[in-house]
Write a sequence for this structure.
């Protein structure tokens, strides 16, 4: 598990300004996804955990997760690959999952020490039935892991450095929002997805009722 390895690294090392850390694995035997679910991580995908030190007092923790989703979609859009955000932290191609990520903000009191992200992308690997690999989308036998890994790290860097541009992030995220997939607890109750609000929450409505779901 890259998360376990990152935990061990952070216990022994202090992150320095402009010196983030990313740990990659060819495959994971103990990958953990959202809510403790198993994160299937076979050889051929991109599996990583990264930590970035934060030295800005103005860092907006509420838009950080959705900014990652937006910049990932923007990266694919520039490659003419049409992906969508399944709020809050999945990237879908059609009805299938291409990417999942787990963001976390680590604080001490009111001070943000660093942010971290656990990330998984189906690249060349055989994916589960509900997933899809990028090589299949592009109809290529094998894609360069180093190239796509560097693109993802660049996305994380953008999500942090452009954090203050809240309007750009929220507007962009709404452009890519998939409005089909409600959170599980709302699926059977006729709720519909409206948009992502200014703090990164998902706005849903039913008749005249409206709710905002926050992370």
């Amino acid at each position: 598990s890259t998360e376990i390895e990152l935990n061990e690294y952070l216990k022994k090392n202090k992150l320095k300004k402009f010196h983030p850390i990313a740990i990659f694995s060819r495959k994971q035997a103990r990958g953990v996804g959202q809510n403790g679910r198993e994160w299937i991580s076979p050889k051929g995908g991109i599996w990583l955990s990264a930590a970035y030190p934060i030295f800005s007092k103005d860092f907006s923790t509420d838009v950080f997760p959705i900014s990652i989703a937006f910049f990932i979609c923007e990266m694919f859009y520039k490659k003419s690959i049409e992906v969508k955000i399944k709020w809050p932290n999945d990237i879908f191609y059609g009805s299938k999952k291409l990417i999942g990520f787990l963001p976390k903000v680590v604080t001490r009191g009111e001070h943000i020490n660093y942010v971290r992200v656990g990330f998984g992308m189906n690249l060349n690997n055989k994916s589960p039935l509900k997933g899809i690999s990028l090589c299949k989308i592009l109809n290529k036998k094998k894609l360069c892991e180093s190239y796509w890994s560097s693109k993802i790290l660049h996305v994380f860097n953008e999500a942090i450095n452009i954090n203050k541009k809240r309007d750009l992030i929220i507007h962009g995220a709404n452009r890519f929002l998939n409005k089909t997939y409600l959170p599980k607890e709302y699926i059977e109750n006729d709720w519909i997805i409206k948009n992502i609000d200014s703090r990164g929450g998902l706005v849903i409505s039913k008749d005249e009722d409206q709710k905002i779901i926050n992370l």
Notes: Residues 3 and 166 are 28 Å apart (CA to CA). The radius of gyration is 17 Å. The longest strand covers residues 96-108.
